[in-house]
Amino acid sequence: MTESTADETSPGTPPPGPQDAAPMGGSASEPGHPKAEQATRIVEASRSFGITPEQYMLPAQQQIRMLSPEGTLVPEDQQGTGPGHEYPIPEDEVLLKAYESLVAGRRINDQNYALVRQGRMAVYPSSHGQEACQVGAALCLGEGDWMFPTYRDSVAVITRGVDPLDVMVSFRGDWHCGYDPTAYRVGAMSTPLTTQLLHAVGVAHAAKLRGEDTVVLAMCGDGATSEGDFHEALNFAAVFEVPVVFFVQNNGYAISVPLSHQSAAPSLAHKAIGYGMAGEQVDGNDMVAVLAVLRRAVHLAREHSMPLLVEAVTYRMQAHTNADDATRYRDSEEVEQWKRKDPLKRMRTFLSSKGLLDGDVEEQFSTTAESVAASLRTAMTAEPKGDPLELFDHVYSEPTAQLRQQRSQLADELARAEEGGTA
Ligand SMILES: Cc1ncc(C[n+]2csc(CCOP(=O)(O)OP(=O)(O)O)c2C)c(N)n1
Ligand SMILES: [Mg+2]
After folding, report:
1. Atom number, ligand 1, closest to the C-alpha of residue 125
2. pTM
3. N or C terminus: fewer CB in 10 A for the chain?
4. Is the residue at 166 inside a domain?
């Protein structure tokens, strides 16, 4: 499928116009038809790889994988790569940083899980087992890029640089979003499925109109791909050639609904071609492959100003949240099988075999992770100090007369309570 059609790009051959290689065929690609003017970026990109637009847009025939489940390097001819689907292995220092972030991410996930069980946090959708996706999402972006995460993407947001405490306050119910999205270029973690994809496309479109080279990473789960907003976001991004990387973490379930009841598509990455964008499927528990695929997707989105879709196949190791009992809809054998593909173990084995990781470095990484966990424990165990008057802030940019009146009534009552009366 990824065989090069080298004659198309050989020197001296006149470059094909958009209509020559227009992907959809039929009357829509007739010269003079408006459709012929579209998908020029795809044509440009596929031409630069010497393949057809269809070959470029369809995912490679097998999942991109660089590390075996045992953590050994997969031989190059079995990695799933080919022309237009080539993914260079990231540099050693990036791989080591990724592993450090994996260790921290796993510790944060497990600390938060415990804090919920102790009643210190209301809810925590854990990404335990999905940390390679989380870390890859943060490390593939440049400082000026944006990330639009979901409720399950705390580790990605923290790896991007947001203080863990500012992320966790929303899971205690203190704030809808405890950090300033514009300061970190990280959207609020979205609980309504896929609304963030539309925001992501809007931000990327605005940046493009302003002439900035910002790329936006728009994150969602497998279940979210069935939402109407998913369709609208992808369609708009493709038609307007907006630089967004849609990153779908396919963790097998949408609460209790397995992927087989979610989609009949050959893969979620195949959905891309229907919009006229390129899709790729990667082993989501392989830190090396996730980084390689996402980094290149971000590069291509920036270079060609176009959207791409990356599906990472991973697994939700724990229940959806503490409000869910996963034993009611899946058996423990399935979970055990995925334990054997743990992203941390694979990366540790690989980096050790490359001589990049030894006991001292390991120790240093786990000490850092432990101190983050300790500060989370301290902060979440302390009673939150809320100001009741904040109830009226951030509702309208200009508060209404009614809100002003209610605010001053509450302020009076609080002042009287302070003086010793009963509020
Ligand atoms: C618009 C909307 N519909 C329904 C829900 C309820 N809901 C919360 S999480 C979830 C499952 C989402 O599954 P998936 O997209 O695979 O993400 P995961 O939780 O597996 O990370 C559903 C249906 C919601 N939050 N928003
Ligand atoms: Mg899911």
Report:
1. 19
2. 0.90
3. C
4. yes
